[in-house]
Each structure stands twice: as C-alpha cells, then as structure tokens.
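As the work plan foresaw, our protein records have gained a structure token line. A representative record is set out beneath this paragraph:
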Amino acid sequence: MYLRLSPYLFVFLWSSAFVSAKIGVDHATPFAFLFVRFSIVFVIFVAVGLWFSSTRQNTAAKDKAKEPLALTILTGLLLHGGYLGASFYAMASGLGSALTALIVSTQPLLTTALAVVLFHEKPRPIQWLGICVGFVGVVVALSPSLRMDTPTEGILASVIALLAITIGTLIHKRISGRMSLVKSNAIQALAASCFFLLLIQTVETPSITWHPNFIYALMWQVLAVSAGAYVILMILIKRGTMAATTSLLFLVPPTTAIIANLALKEPLGPITVLGFALASVGVYLVTRYQAKTS
C-alpha cells in the first residue's frame, strides 16, 4: 500500500515546496533561506543516524571502504545546491515560478535519454509517448502564466537547475544502495549547507525576518520536503527506472498550480486543469509500463 501511494505523496510534497518557498522568500533572501533549511536538515539526519548507529555498528567498519563519499557529496551539491539554488535564483532574478517549473520539468526527457546511454535502459515506445504527452500537459497547464518578457539571466539559471537535477539524479541512481539513506542525506545536507554558506558570504547579502509565516514555511521545507519528499524520491529512484521515476516531475507544475490556488488564491483556469489531465495521462503511460533493462 505504501509503495503504491508513495509516488502520489511525493508529487504533493514536492509541489508544495514551491508554494512554501514563495511564502518564505517574502521574508528572507533565497540563499540564506536555503542555508538555514539544510543546516537544520543536517542536524536532523545526524540525530537520526546516531539513534540507529548501534544497530549498524558491527557492519559500519566493513562497509566503510565501499561507501561512495565523494559521489554522495557531489549528489548533494547538484540536487540541493545546484537545482534548488539555481531555481531560487531564477525566480529572484524575475523569472516567473511557472516558467521556472516548466523548464525544470523537462528533466524526464533529458534523464531518460541519458539513462538509455549510461544505464542501458530501454523505454518502450508507449513510455516515450507518455513523456511527450506529459510535457505537452505541462506546457498547456502553464501557458496562461508564461510571458515573452522573461529575463535571460533567469532562464540561464533555470537551465542550470535542470542540468543539476538531471545529473544528480543519474549519479544517485548509480550509487544508491551503497550507503545508508540516513547517512547519505546527512552528507548531502552538509554539502548543501556549506555551498549556501559560501554563496551568502560572496554573492548575497543575507537577510531573514523571523516572521511566523517564514517559520512555518521553513519547517514545511525541512520536514515535509527535505525529510519527506526527498527521501521518497531517493527510494523511488532506487526501486524504479529513471523514466518512470522522473516522469513524476511532470505532475509537479500543475499540482503546484492547484496548491497555490487553494493556499494563495492564485488563479486556476480551465486550461490549467486540462494541462493537469494531460500530464496525468503521460505519467500513467510511463509508470504503468516499466522500462526494460539489459
């Protein structure tokens, strides 16, 4: 039951991150917000790791040499630092959240293509159809929000975010299972914290107003997104194919639009609803027919 519901829970939690981030950045600069978030996430995962360390004490020394520490750090820098940092920067530079989400949501196309080359995955024709339908759905859902006067700097940043999450996902697929999930997340959170600390010391003048809305947004980002959605994503990547897992990201922009409509009263018209339906069909086609591997 949990495995069947986990993709839907992931989509909801991952989508809610955009809404909570929008609330949070009203009271803090983006890199300062992310630094505080991942510092707290690091402490949480270290505490959880210490809690369970006694049960793994006998095997820790044996498996230590096999743990991909460098690649785990790189994964954290890409998925947390590169993807989130560039996405937040894109929106801070004036790029709309809808267009940012649209660009990043093309990841399944790039990830699936690279997985064919790197991991010898063989998506079926119907899965390729699902990816195309899902992408069309995202475009339709977000089309009312797209503008032509978009900043080049923001577009470049969102493309960097796309590349970061794509490469980070592929690396995690390769190293998954070689380090405990708790330890892996702690290392990735620490890498992200150091990365954002460097940014707020060099390219940003950090500012945080500890308004109740910021605290609520921060706690949601920490508990629901980093400790919830991200862990589910790592499990899905480990157990599923790249095409099936990353295709879920097609549902994120339209789902975000629905959550924003309910929470922030942002407009949600029939075109967006139609796009959501198309994206749902696309994801179903990809996840229903698992890709073959050789």
Residues 212-239 form the longest helix (28 residues). The beta strands are 121-122, 292-293.
